[in-house]
Design a protein that fits this description.
8-stranded mixed beta sheet
Length: 970
Amino acid sequence: MEHPEDHAYPGHWEADVVLRDGGTARIRPITTEDAERLVSFYEQVSDESKYYRFFAPYPRLSDRDVHRFTHHDYVDRVGLAATVGGEFIATVRYDRTDEHGRPASAPADEAEVAFLVQDAHQGRGVASALLEHIGAVARERGIRRFAAEVLPANAKMIKVFRDAGYTQRRSFEDGAVRLTLDLEPTAESLAVQRGREQRAEARSVQRLLAPGSVAVVGTGRAPGGVGRAVLRNLRDAGFTGRLYAVNSAFPESTTALDGVPAVRSVTLIGEPVDLAVLAVPADRVPEAVEECGRSGVRGLVVLSSGYAESGAEGRERQHALVRQARSYGMRIIGPNAFGIINTAESARLNASLAPEPPARGRIGLFTQSGAIGIALLAGLHRLGAGLSSFVSAGNRADVSGNDILQYWFEDPDTDVALLYLESIGNPRKFTRLARRTAAVKPVVVVKGARHSGSAPPGHTVPVTRIPDATVSALLRQAGVIRVDTVTELVDAGLLLASQPLPAGPRVAILGNSESLGLLTYDACLTEGLRPLPPQDLTTAAAPDDFRTALTAALADPGCDAVVVTAIPRVGETGTADPDGGGALGTALRTAAATAPAKPVAVVHVEIGGLAQALSAAATSGPGRPAPQTTAPPPSEPPPPTSPPPPRPPRPEEIPAPAPDAAPDAGPGTPDAAPGTPDAVRRLPAYPAAERAVRALAEAVRYAQWRRQAADPGKVPEFLDDAIDAGAAAALIDRLLGAAPGTRRLPTADAHELLALYGIPVRPTLPAPGPDEAVAAAARLGYPVALKTTAPHLRHRADLGGVRLDLADEAQLRLAHRELTETLGTAVELSPVVQAMAPRGVDTVVRAAIDAAAGAVLSFGLAGAPSELLGDLAHRLVPVTDRDAAELIRSIRTAPLLFGWRGSAPVDTPALEEVLLRVSRLVDDHPEVVSVTLEPVVVAPHGVSVLGATVRLAPPPARDDLGPRTLPSYH
């Protein structure tokens, strides 16, 4: 390509975007080679749209116009185009101007902006997407404001500017509306952008899951094969739309296959096709995609293998596939996918290799593995759980778990979201979407490839340095229920989809086996629940006895949930109950209907038919959302929870709900009145006590998170009193200007920067010799500490590198001599003197920026607890006062801060303030890529920061603050 010579073509401005209707478009800079495309585009614009653009009749572009609109310097004059199929559908340009509206260059920071959208594509959100991208370009080039003149009758364009969320001013001049927009992102503009992103991405998934017509490309002429299997599954599931079989090898005389219309090419179908399922070899996929694109197909499911999972050549083939599909506005599930299922009565779509579609239910399931997808479908089916939708994305080259979450967030048919993930391509976005979704419906995740150190074959994801334990902690902060196995995924989904959320951790246990009851009791304690003493109904208990006991337990205000345990009933003759569990299932369902706001789980051992009997009852019915009543949030900070390996909250740490608190009804609550037939709900059944209790414990913790999410906390205003963000920014600019690139700050500079955020660090003075040490102590005042700053001995009191409580000159000189005699020369050790801090608990506070996940604040006790045992807690920045309180209570060694074994409790409010200040520093200044405060000594009154390191670097790109864009493979 030829481009203006003064500035290189800005390839990083190219982006694929999802539009309002779920289709895609490509946004890129306009170049000198686009003259013919521009003329063709303009010819397809109506006279009215041309009039709105130029304020006068303007039937065609002159040669001068074409030259002006295709020649840009990419600084003061920029043009962007939205394209589909390589052709323009919309354009936007800005021209930098001075205060008089004349052409200008930097430092002028205002520009005139103008749009033109082809009439056929108006209403798709193209102009809004272009405004986001041209605004980001302008900010990059030093432009802070856009000005636009719009005719009053051009209501659509005025709405685009008005709805953008930017700070704006409006005036009426010379018969036109003049709009001025400040381009600095605001909370409102970010909310608008994310709202549009959610609606667009959800719509793009809906187009895939609810097509009006499907073409299966690659259906074999003979029985067997992938394409023929998918065609059969679609037909047998009763797909409600139009279905076509496509194979270029069909004889011209072939017009039907298995009762389905058959054609040799998608282009011969003769009507629009919403979804194409590609089941052809990888080398034939490009031809199939080309035909689909030219025929207006809206989305693809690519079952073909031979892509990124097969190596570098396959990875490039996969990237080319995405580029080709997006050029026609199509989204892709796959390649190497297992398929998709939508059980809605309006769709009945089984475009997958699963021969038997699952029953209709309230669970959404997403997997990145076909094999795991098969196992999960079988497990849910065996337990009587139905699905709303299923997506097995394979290599997830385009549509990912993030897109599916966007869809499930507003899908009325999905109450619970289950995801099996082998990689998280955009952790920052995933946690944001998961938090929003978890606020209204449970999100349960099991992650494979946790310890492999690399992404699974076929997955192109950013490299993250964050350990899996940290990822788990951040997911839980976002409300995600993180489980370790697919079995636990099914167990949790089964309970959450059929039962209300518990109001608290108090669990009643009843059953006909004392031993099984005790196992359940122990499992509850292990999971941090509060079990009540098990009620033994004896082995002679009949179904009526179970119903009576369960009804009484559910009526007890001191009980939040019930676990029923059952073994086969043996009659007086010594023979097993011939009923096979049917009567017991009916009795338990009937009793559960008396208290629809409390969850019930059943543990059974070898009772054939009980699980089926428990799952046979009707729930609130498909499409009927459960009522949502939420218990008041607790007034105190939440109790300790822990990062993996999980240490459940101790019973005494969990506040009991208020007596009049209404439980969070949750996703599975029936909405019929108790005692009516519709009130009889499904009950989840488990073959082991540990599985049932673990699922219940996850529901308890999730319900607690839901209550807390209603009041997420805030950053206290008192922080502003001791923070000088402006001075800190100037200091950072000066330090980075003196030494560009990543650098560790000298001690004095690090202390100065921290002090500007109200974090004083106790000063240290160098002590290369005993005389210098004595002089330093005289300045600081006794008692003092003498410690080495050598990297291999830093913070290693156990190796003798730190000498404390030196009360006078003699002790100091002796300590200096012993230090240099046993550990090395003064040059090697670089000893320093520091005034003693009040005694307390040594802790460590860290903040670091990960390219994929963002800024993370971490806390733990200094030394062995954090370094050897990994006892650290983590939160995403920015943290609120509630986050800070949770953070220090989340580590397993937290009792040491609160008076363990009679020790004095330390000043945790002061510690929380330090955490908030570090979070604020990192959030305000993205150039601060790492902060470590160690040790932070927390005394009964106050805290002392004894050591600090700070690293600076040019600020990393924040893709979550930029314009909407899909991952690019160009």
